[in-house]
């Protein structure tokens, strides 16, 4: 399940809703990862653009991988502005046993950082500044260059 | 006619071009000074599927997207 929200995430509600939805589905492990915006370099917050068609197909490919291991992935992400100490990203894995969930949350979040079509901007004095130095080229980038 | 969309931080309006393959797109964008840095770090998708080479033929109505470096979370 992939959920996108305008602005910051309501972390307690999302975690509680995900827990409630799977409370009786016999998963033995529920491992969430919550990303929170930290105060650094004088930023007021972060802002995000998302390209949803490719994000959805990327997520579905991961859900198929999880399903093959008997697991389930849920993810929530913000569009637009998210201020300091608010959250923009939650990912969680449910699985019958802990080892699958621990491995999968690690692999999923790493690939999310490298591949998910989401662009991050620092909010500095009300302006959005693209965070190029913290961004990762998607595999296969550069084919149009000389 | 194909459409070329520039995603995320690339501040450039979409293009509509009469081209039949990605090599033609590469030549057009290489001549565009404001795109030279982006071309080095952008991935390319045709109809929302990422491609890994320019060996892709295009047909009328196709949508090409340029995806600069990403950073979710």
Report on this model:
The complex is a heterodimer of chains A (146) and B (73). Chain A has three helices and seven strands. Chain A has 146 residues and is of the alpha+beta class. In chain A, strands 1, 2, 3, 4, 5, 6 and 7 form a seven-stranded mixed β-sheet that branches. Chain A starts with a strand and ends in a 16-residue tail after the last strand. With 73 residues, chain B is α+β, with helices and mostly antiparallel strands. Chain B has two helices and five strands, in the order E-E-H-H-E-E-E. The longest helix of chain B is centred in the middle third of the chain and has 9 residues, at 22-30. Chain B is globular and about 35 Å long. The mean pLDDT of chain B is 97. The chains are: A alpha+beta (146), B alpha+beta (73). At the A-B interface, helix 2, helix 3 and strand 6 of A face helix 1, helix 2, strand 3, strand 4 and strand 5 of B.
Characterize this entry briefly.
The complex is a heterodimer of chains A (146) and B (73). Chain A is of the alpha+beta class and 146 residues long.
> How many discrete structural domains of chain B?
1
Run of helices and strands of chain A: EHEEHEEHEE
CATH topology of chain A: Aldehyde Oxidoreductase, domain 3
- The proportion of residues forming helix of chain B, as a percent range, comes to 10-25%
Q: Count of DSSP helices of chain A?
A: 3
* Sheet of most strands of chain B: 5 strands, mixed
Could you name the ranges of chain B where pLDDT drops below 50 across 5 or more consecutive residues?
A: none
Count of strand segments of chain B:
5
What is the CATH architecture descriptor of chain B? Roll
Q: What is the count of structural domains of chain A?
A: 1
Overall mean pLDDT of chain A: 97
Largest interface: A-B, 37 and 32 residues
Order of helices and strands of chain B: EEHHEEE
Structural class of chain B: alpha+beta
């Amino acid at each position: 399940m992939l959920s996108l929200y305008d602005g910051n995430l309501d972390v307690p509600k999302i975690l509680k809703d995900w827990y409630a939805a799977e409370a009786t589905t016999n998963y033995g492990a529920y491992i969430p990862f919550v990303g929170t915006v930290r105060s650094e370099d004088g930023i007021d917050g972060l802002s995000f653009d998302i390209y949803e068609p490719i994000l959805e197909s990327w997520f579905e490919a991961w859900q198929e991988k999880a399903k093959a291991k008997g697991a389930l992935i849920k993810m929530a992400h913000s569009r637009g502005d998210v201020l300091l100490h608010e959250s923009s990203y939650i990912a969680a894995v449910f699985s019958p046993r802990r080892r699958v969930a621990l491995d999968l949350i690690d692999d999923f979040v790493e690939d999310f950082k490298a591949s998910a079509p989401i662009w991050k901007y620092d909010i500095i004095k009300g302006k959005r500044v693209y965070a190029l130095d913290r961004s990762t080229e998607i595999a296969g980038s550069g084919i149009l260059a000389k | 006619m194909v459409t070329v969309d520039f995603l995320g931080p690339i501040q450039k309006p979409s293009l509509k071009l009469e081209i039949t393959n990605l090599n033609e797109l590469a030549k057009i964008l290489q001549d565009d000074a404001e795109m030279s840095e982006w071309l080095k770090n952008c991935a390319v998708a045709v109809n929302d599927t990422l491609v890994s080479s320019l060996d892709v033929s295009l047909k009328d109505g196709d949508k090409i997207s340029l995806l600069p470096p990403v950073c979710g979370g």
